[in-house]
Amino acid sequence: MTLRHLLSFPLLAALAAAPAFATNGYLQHGYGVKSQGMAGVGIALPQDGLPAATNPAGTAFVGNRIDVGAVWFRPSRGAEISGNGAGLDGRYDGNDTRNFFIPELGYVRQFGGDYAFGVAVYGNGGMNTDYRRNPFRSFGAQGNAGIDLAQVFVSPSLAWRITPDHAVGVAVNLAWQQFKAKGIQPFAGFSAAPGNVSDQGRDDATGWGLRLGYTGRLSPTLTVGLTWASKTRMGDFDKYRGLFAEGGGFDVPENYGAGLAWQATRALTLAADVQRIEYSGVPSVGRTLAPLFAGNPLGSNDGPGFGWRDVTVWKLGAGYEWSDNLTLRAGYSHVSAPVPSGQTLLNILAPGVVRDHASIGATWKTAGGELSLSYTRAFRETVRGSASIPAVPFGGGEADVHLSEHILGIAWGRAL
C-alpha cells in the first residue's frame, strides 16, 4: 500500500486538506496537545501516543494508549512595501484565508516485555498566504497572490527498553506534501521554466526519512532525551519546477535536539528542550536571492531560494497535578530568526517569522479517558527589510513582513 493509498483514510484525507502556518519556521512548535500546552517540550517527556513525532524512544514509557486530537491555527500575516520605484508601495494583508485545522493521531502498544510499537499521524506544518490585494500587481500579477504548503507525516516507530530506565527508538517518517502558488506570474521572467512558476494548481510529492531517539531516567526524578531526524528527501514538485531550486526540490530539513524533564515535587514537573533545524540544507528554502543575479534563474540547479537561516529553538514547560483528575500546564519558547532582513522580498509569500510563544493547557481525567486542551499565542514578529528589494530589476525599497498566531488544540486519549 502506497502513501497515496493511505491518504484515502478519513483522518489522513483531513490532514491532506488542512494546510497550516507553522511556528518554528514551518515546523510545528510541538506535537500532541499535551506537549503544545507546555510550549512543545517532549524530547524527554512523552505524555501521549505521539512520541514518534518527537522522540520515538518515548514510546517505551507511555504504556498502551491511543490519542486523537485536532489543532486550530489562526495566523495573521502580511507585508508592507515602501520606497519602491516600481509601484509596489503599500500595506498588504495576507489573510484572505484565515482558519486552518490539523487532526492528529497517536497509538502505542507495548509487547514482549522490553519493546513498544507506535504510530503517529500528524501535520508537520506548512506555509500559507493569501493576498487579495496582490503585492506584485504593479509587475503585472493577476488575482490573489500566495502559496499553500501542507505536509503530512505517518511515522511508525519501534522502541527497545535496554534496561528498565533506558530506551532507544527509531521511527520511519513517511511523508506526503502538497503545494500551490498563485498570483506570482511576473517571476516567470526570472525562471528556467517560465511555465511552471505560478497558477499550476496543486502538486504533490512523497518521500521518507528516519528519526532516532534515546530516553533515559538518570534518577527517579531526572530524565534526559536525545533525538535526531534525517532530512526527509521528497520527490520534486514538477508543476513548480520553475520556482523551486533544483527543478522543484523541496525536502524537509534535518533537525535534532536534547531535552530534560525534572520531577521537582510529587505534583510539579519541569521540562526543557533545545532543538536545531537545518533549513540551510534545503536549497529551495536556505539559499538567498543572490544566485538570481549571478546568472542562476529560479528553478535551476543553483537557483535562489527564500534565504532562511538555520534556527535554534529553546522551550521551557511546567506541568502541575492539581488533583488526581486535573493536570495544568504552561510553557514558553523562543526561536532564533529564520528570515534575515535582506531576504524579505520572496518571504512576503512565506513570512514564517514568529519567534516567541506562550502556552497554557490542561487535562481532565474521567472514567472514559482524558480530555486535553491547549492554547498557544505566537506573538507578533515583524522583520523589517534592509536592502531587501534589489533596485534592478525590482525597483528598490524595502519589504517588511509580519506574522502572529492563535493556536488552540483539543484531544481525547485513553489507556488501553
From TrEMBL:
Principal location class:
membrane
Transmembrane portions of the chain = none
Entry's localization field? Cell outer membrane
Q: Which InterPro entries match?
A: OMPP1/FadL/TodX
The signal peptide, as residue positions, is 1-22
Topology class, membrane: Multi-pass membrane protein
UniProt KW Transmembrane keyword: yes
* CC per GO annotation: cell outer membrane
A Pfam family annotated for this UniProt entry: Toluene_X
* Listed SUPFAM superfamilies: Porins
UniProt KW keywords: Cell outer membrane, Membrane, Signal, Transmembrane, Transmembrane beta strand
Q: Name one GO molecular function term.
A: long-chain fatty acid transporting porin activity
Similarity remark = Belongs to the OmpP1/FadL family.
Tell me what this protein is called: Membrane protein involved in aromatic hydrocarbon degradation
Q: Per the UniProt entry, what species is this protein from, by scientific name?
A: Methyloversatilis universalis (strain ATCC BAA-1314 / DSM 25237 / JCM 13912 / CCUG 52030 / FAM5)
